[in-house]
Amino acid sequence: MSEPSRWPGLITLTKDLGRRTFRARRPKFFRAPEDEEEGALTGDETARERHEMHDSEAAEDDEPMLDEESLTLALPAVLPDGTDSSGRGDEVRRAAADWLARELEKVHEERRKAGIRGWLGVDKVKAQHPKEPPLGVDLKPTGELNPQFATQDRKAGREEALKLLGWRKRYADARKLWSSGDRKVVFPYGTWLAPRLWGAKAETKAG
Fold it and tell me: CA nearest 195: which of 74, 72, 82?
């Protein structure tokens, strides 16, 4: 598909920001909340086979599994210029549409330069296995390093790794509180997107 709006499946459009709520019922092949036996599944054999495609370990242990979930497309707290978006829904939607148009043009230009023509298409996308790489994409290791930090001092490396794990834990806790409705939560120093996208607070210096 050359334009996201032409995709036939469930999609989010810039015009829906602040206006639309998606609702979905829990598939039968997910674990039922009342199942106490480890690994107990609902549904028939086909449903259980489909369950294998679901990475249940990705969900948090205390995450509730409701019969129905909803997702509302909220407006970002601020506009690209950093000003408050309250009461300015139309401006936010126009800004989002303009940004998307620019990003699409970049994609089309990159494809033209690379001599790529045509698109994969809906049928081929739906036929792909979710655990296999997209057609034409080679995911074999390149052997090139792309570390978050590098050092020949093993002790220093371990210390930095522990600091990073600690930061991620603090960020995850803050995001969980924010998602539950707590707008007083303070994200750890170094958080970039949350203050700009949601208007959240972040530490001004490392603790």
Answer: 82
Shared domain for 83 and 126, answered yes or no, is yes
User: Does residue 26 belong to any structural domain of this protein?
Assistant: no
Q: Within a domain: residue 127?
A: yes
Identify residue 26 by its one-letter amino acid code: R
Sequence-ordered alpha helix ranges (H) in 16-133? 45-51, 89-113, 122-127
Output the pLDDT for position 34: 46
Instruction: Give the residue numbers spanning the domain of 160.
Output: 154-202
Find the mean pLDDT for residues 53-58: 45
Q: What is the pLDDT of residue 102?
A: 92
131/159 same-domain check = no
pTM: 0.48
Specify the long-range contacts of residues 61-69, CB closer than 8 Å, at least 24 apart.
Answer: 64/33, 65/26, 65/30, 65/31, 65/32, 65/33, 66/26, 66/33, 67/25, 67/26, 68/23, 68/24, 68/25, 68/26, 69/23, 69/24, 69/26
More confident residue, 69 or 53: 69
Q: Are residues 162 and 193 in the same domain?
A: yes
73 contacts 14 by C-beta, under 8 angstroms:
no
pLDDT cut 90: percent of the chain above it = 19
C-alpha radius of gyration, the chain, whole number: 22
